Every structure is written in C-alpha cells, then in structure tokens.
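TA notes. Do not distribute before section.
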Amino acid sequence: MLREISVGFSVALIIFAVIAGYDIFPLFMLALAGGALFFIAQSKGMVKNLNGASSKKPTTNITFDVIGGQTTAINELRECLDFIKHDEHVKQLGIRPLKGILLTGPPGTGKTLLAKAAANYTDGVFMSCSGSEFVEMYAGVGAQRVRKLFNNAREKAKKQNKTNAIIFVDEVEILGSKRGQNNNHMEYDQTLNELLVQMDGLKVDDSVRVLVMAATNRADMLDDALMRPGRFDRQVKVDLPDRQGRYEILQIHAKNKPLAEDVDINNVAKETFGFSGAHLESLTNEAAILAMREKCSKIYYRHLQEAVDKVIMGEKMDKRPSKDELHRVAVHETGHALASEMVRPGSVSTLTVTPRGGALGYMRQHSEDDNYLYTREYLENQIAVMLAGSVAEKTVIGNRSTGASNDFEKAFQTAEKIIKAGLSDLGIVSWESLAQADKYKETKKLLNAQEKKVQEYLNKKCQVINIIVEKLLDKEKVSGDEFRSLIEKKIA
C-alpha cells in the first residue's frame, strides 16, 4: 500500500513540475543513476532478500503423527514446545523458556519436517531459511538480515493474532561456525554475533514468544557461544531409524500406493538397514515407477527389491562386460556370498552381475537385527566376506583382478577399527601414538588370518561355486533363498 502511494505521489510531483515550467532533466538523470545503483547493489546481493527467510503458515497436514521412525525425537521436541504452549505454567514455576532447539543428525532423517510439525503443534508463525542466506561479502548485510528476520517474525505473528513464532534455520553450521576461522572475512563473525544478541533478547514476557530451531549434520562446527545454555538450550538427536522406525516410515509412504499381496513391509524394513527417511521415501517411489514401467496395476515385492538395489547402487548401466569379465564378476560375487553364508547363515539377500553405478556386480546382505556395537569376531567375519571375492577369483580362475581394490580398502579400515577399539592382540593402544610399522604389522596379521580361513573354505566349494556361477550368468540375478537352495542341493 505504501509503495503504491509513493509511486502515485512521485508521478503527481513530476506532472506538477512540468506544468510549472521546471526543468526536470537533472532530476530524471538523478533518478536514473539511483535506479542503476540500486540494480547493481541488488545483483551483488547487498539488498537481496533482506528478510532472510520465507514466511509460511503451518502446513496443516504436517503433524507429528505423519512423521515415522523418530519417536524419541518427537517426544523430546514436544516437551520443549510445551514451554511455549503452556506459558502460564512456565511463569508459575519460574521456568526460563527455551530459546533455541538444535536438531542434529544425518541428512534425510526428517529435521525440516519436525520443524514444520513443531510450528503446527504450537499454532505459531513458521519462518524458514538457510544459513547460507545470511552470509555475504559485504559487511553488515548478514547482521541486518538477522535483525529483519526476528522483527518480521514478531510482526507477522501480531498480524495473524498469534502469540508464538518459530524461526527455522537449516544448515546452521554455515551461519554459526566457530569464530576466528575466517580471518579475511569478518562478515561471518558479525552475522553470528547478531544472532547471539537476538537470541539473548528473547524473554518469557514477550508479546510474541519466538523460538529458534536449527538443523545441522555438523554440530562439531558450531561456535561454543551458540551451543551454551541460554541460546540453544536443547539438542534433539534425529538419528537414522531402527528397524521398527523403518517399518513405520514405509507404512506411511505406502499408504497411497497399491501394494500386492506378496509384499511384506517388515521384510523390506529388515533389508534397509542404514536407510534414512528420505531413502525410504525414494524407495517406495522408485518401486512405483518400476511397476508403471511394467504396466502393473500393483506394486509387487520384486519391485521393492529392485528399488532397494537402485537406491543403494544407482540405475542399471548400459555397458556390458565381456564374457570373460562377466564370468570373473560372477565368481567374485559368489565368493562374497559363500563367505557371508559361512559366517552367518541366511544373511545373503541378493546376488547379481547386473552393472549398477560403479559396480559390475554385487552381493547384498540383510541383518536380523540392527547392530550398534561389534565384537572382534563380528568384525573379523566382515573382513572374511570382504576378502572372499578376490580369494574366489584366485581359487577358480587362478589370478586376481583390480575389482577387489575397494574390498581391500574396506577390509583395512575394518582391521584398523579392531586395533583402535583395543580388540586386537596389541590390547588397548593409542592409535595416534602407535608406530606405523606396528599398525601395518597388526593389520596384515588380521587380514592374513581371515584370508587363510576363507581360502581353506572355498577350496572345498569349487564345484558349488561353478554351479552358482552358471546359474548367475544365466539369470543375472539370484535371490538369497534361491542361492541357499543351490547350496543345499549340492550338499544333498
């Protein structure tokens, strides 16, 4: 409204000056120069998006009920938000309201969704932005945007007759990284200082109670002053979902998708260890796309299995290895699979020689339970599986190839993990203080022991390897159940 009045007044003033006989050419040139300067400043980011955020009304369909796999995080977040909803109890008990909540965790775990659900839960104004929006090469711009952000949150809440406002800053590590790291660019420090000042100014008796929520997967980069109580009072861990959490997330994303009778969501949850909520959403979406390609009216279990492979490894590649290379890949993956069944029966989920991403073939395992602590025996078994591909090549073909280089790298890392955890014959050691020669000697000792064990096992399984390789070359993909049936037939 103010802009329209200003434009109308300016036009009227120009018309009056022309009628009165004034020379408006100097004024015209001055206005033109001012417009050019404004345009240049805008293009350089000096006046771009001074609000620093986008204002949104709470999305009505995003509530805590539609977020699966994060029960602990939701319960902790609800408790924090109750300080805003029930302010009368806060004042009665003399509780200082929380000023900031930091959501930490890997990408794709639902931190932004939790922030939107929080705004809905408190019935407040929701303003979101990214940390990168506040950092410019011009001094003072970032600090000005922070001030405007907090002022706009209060103003919009008053206009909408709200008493609460949530400011959500994604990728806050860009805005709040440790001070002093950018010696040639003090703009970073000024912007962070302004955020600290604004958060200090939040009071319990404010007419609009502002809560700052932020998300990061690099909490170690944040400045200590930002992390202390009185700024970000609570850290809510939004971690990768466990098996039950993955089951809940899959059920949410499968609600609007026609699943066939052979689909068992629990089995899919079991085979997706390490998947985030974003991965699981992509999984169900890719399965639906695969079903559409086949002109199926329903999504079958094979579509979900194929989608798991695609999310992990990527799309199938057009390149086709030569006959000899394909045979070597089949032998290599069969070696992995046999070693996996040796150390943990029933662990093989899929065996394929279909090229995906950067791999010419792969063997996928599934776990009965999600593991977070590992014994030496478990880690040694993992090393055995990693080395088995190369050992199978040497046993059947007579030599090795470069296809095992990534396996060797992972095997070395796992052996180092055994030493660092004090599980090796060296006992409890300081990895940094340990001599390089001792590290290499103990690592090689662990790897050689597992290589010898696998070699002895596969020497007895040459005929089984050939049978499975023949089947794999014929079908390109063998399921875990089919793989185990081939082993049992040979044994019988």
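Switch to the second chain here.
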Amino acid sequence: MKDWLIGAGVALVLFMAVLGVNILPLILLAGLGFVFYTLMERRQTAPTGSRESAVRHAVNFDHIGGQDHAKRELMEALDFLRYRDKIKKLGIRPLKGILLTGPPGTGKTMMAKAAATYTDSTFISASGSEFVEMYVGVGAQRIREIFRKARASARKEGKDSAIVFIDEIDVVGGKRGAHSHQEYDQTLNQLLTEMDGMQTTQNPMVLVIAATNRADILDSALLRPGRFDRQIKVDLPDKEGRLHILRIQTQDKPLADDVDLEHIARETYGFSGAQLESLVNEAAIIALRANVPKIEQSFFRDAVDKVLMGEKTGRKPTQDELYRVAVHELGHAIASEMMRPKSVSHITIAPRGNALGFVRQIPEADSYLYTKEQLDQQIVVALGGAVSEELIFNNRSTGAQNDFLQASRISKTEVMCGLSRLGIVAEEHLPEAILDEEVRYILSDIEKRTKDTITPFAEALQSYAKYVVDEESIDGSDFRRWLHSTAAHADQALLAN
C-alpha cells in the first residue's frame, strides 16, 4: 500500500509539472508528510522509555554446556514452533510460556537466545525492572507494547514466530498484595491478560520465555497451565557438565600440556557456568601477567582461589598472625585428609577477600544425600582449625568464627533430619532450648574426636607451619607427602615404645 501511494504521488507531481504548475509547495508538503509518517512508524515499533529491542545473535544450544537435561526439555517444548503441522494433527495445544528457574549464572539467558535460533524466531528481551516505575500504568503500557512489537518485528523480518524473553520476572511477577505500590499489581495483571489472550493459531505466534531464581515468590496465577505451561530447572552443572563447559570455554585458548581439565572440573564443585567462564578468563589474565604463551595448570589453581574468595588484599598480617593462620589451616587440612584421603587440593595463607587463609578441598563426588558419618566428618574438618590452634597455642582466636557457624549449621541439620539422639523431630514442635542443647552435645562430642585426630601431628605441625609461612601456598600433594611421613614416624615411635 505504501509503495502504491508513493508511485501515485510521483506520477501526479510529474503530470502537474508538465502542465506548468508550480510543484515546489507540493514537494515541501510531501517531504513534511514523509517525516511525520516516519516518526509515527518509529513510535509504533519502539515505545517511549522502553529498552527492549529485537536482537540478532548466533547463540545456539551447542554453545551451552552442562545443561543437557534442561536443553532436551526446552527443545522438546520448542518443537511446537518448528513442527506446527505435526502437532496440529495430534491435537496438541501449543505452549504459551516457558519459565526457566535456577541459580544465577547457570545459562538461563543463553538458553532463551538459543531457543530463538533453534526456532528461527525474532528475539525480544527485557528485564523485569524495566516495567516498574513510580507512575501507575507505565508498566502495563510497556507490557502491551512489547507484545505488539514482537509481532511487528516478526512480520518485518518475514518470520512466523517471535520469542519474548523477560529476565528477572520475579520483579513484576511477585504475589499480588505483597507490594504497597499499585503499579506492581497493575503490571502483573496486564502480563496475565496478554498471556491469556495470546492465540496459539495466529501468525506470527508469540512465545514467552521468562527467567528467575526466585520461583517461590511468583504469583500462582502466572504459573497455571495456559500461561507458563512448562517450568524448566536450569541447575548448577555436575562434574561432567563442568567439564563440558570448561572444554567449550578453552576452545580458543592456548593450554599448556600439564592442564588437566578433568581435575579442574572436580575442584570446582558448586561452580555455575558463569563462574567457570570467569575462571578460564582469570587464568588467561594470570598467564598474560606472567608473560607466558600458554595457560598452565597452576594458573587455573590461582584462578579458582580468586573466583571463590576474590583478589589478594593489601592487608599485611604480622609474622605471629601468619604463623597462627598456618597452624589453623593445617588443622583443617589434617582433619580433611584423615577423614577423606586425597581430599586436600591446595593450602594458602595469602589473604583474599575476608579470609586470611584457605584450604581448598576436592569433593569425592557430586553428592545430594549425606549420612550421619559424612556430616560428622564435615564437622571434624570445620573444627580442625580451632582445635589445632588450641593444641599449639593453648588458646583460640577469632579466626574460627565462620568455622563454628558452619559446624553449628551442620549439627542443626543432623537434628532436623532425625540423625541425633532425639530421633525424628518436627522443627515447629521442637523447643529452642532442646535444640540448642542437642547441638552443643554434638559439637562437644565431635570436638573430642577432632582433638584425637590432630594430636598425633601436633609436634611436627609446628615446624611445618613455619614452612607454610615461608612458601605462602602449598599444593595438596606436597602436604600429603609431609602428612604420610609424619604418620610413619609416629607409628615407628609407637612401636619402639
């Protein structure tokens, strides 16, 4: 229609020029009309104050590691956009919304972008915070505009589907009545209305993908079938997933021959995909600082420390403080190694973040269930630092504060899981005084066990702590050689007596 009007206008102007009519006013009027039309068109396709826009990208599911289950589930949900005729024959109602839940940094945004590539859809993204302002009605208007723009962008690009991605949807999707500001509820109501009114047979079709790490606070009306039909958990990767992510992230980086990605994957238990990407990047930065052509295994070790605890601080502890920190960390390491051999990966007394020292452990496997013995072993390791200080200095320091908090949390877990003397209990019916008494009993009993574990090494620990102060950081294999040598000497002395 627009092309036809432009052609007719040009023909009319030429005809009037042939007749000798002054066409300059007509040209000026046509120019003003064109400018006005362009401004109106831009306003229709880009709402005022909104930052959402159609995005072109090249992210696909091959770029996402460690989320095989979530990717399969998402791809299955997306097939209704790719195979419409097939699902129509089976009478399947296409999905209107998919909710991605999970901790930060696990790849939810990347999965949404990959979904657009997989389905060849227009991709429009916005953050939940962009819809909420102090002025009532602004958020609801932006919700309407983003859905309208998704369809307009798809038509403009010649595509028959569009994906609207809303990150941090908990900002606008929280339970109604929880906020004092009416704008939150109006914005959510408009989102519910838009999703309820979406026709799954119209062209272009719009699919809403949202992400949050607080699914527990979302309004129940948002989660019902017909709105967000499918919830997909994007969890922290397991060991194989971490290895997959590390391989993807190191594809374009020169690695030294001693780099063992499988060992790094074991060390990084609990890391998200974003943390693993940061780990590889930090290792490359360390290689740049060292002015070496390839990234070495030791660089990854230092990068793990930095990602976990932050950059080295400028604090300068005294020699006495460093010696106490070394004794403390060796206590943790001895307890860890005696509870689970070959578990210590690295010991350092270099101040990082809020910590003056740190013992990094390698988990035996990604565990999801724990026995009482395993929990007791974790308490032994947590108390090892304070017990070691007491054996050497006959006193303790404030450095054990976080250790005690961790030990108390594990003890409380034992009580609540029915693994204590109290047997099966209900938290709401358990008096606080009885809970405190049982936690103190568990900690006191395991403290004696911890002291029995570390005492045989107390004498040799003093000299080795001085070595740790001089070296600042030692590898787990070096520590194990000392520990086994000390244990062998202790056995020989026992036999001689």
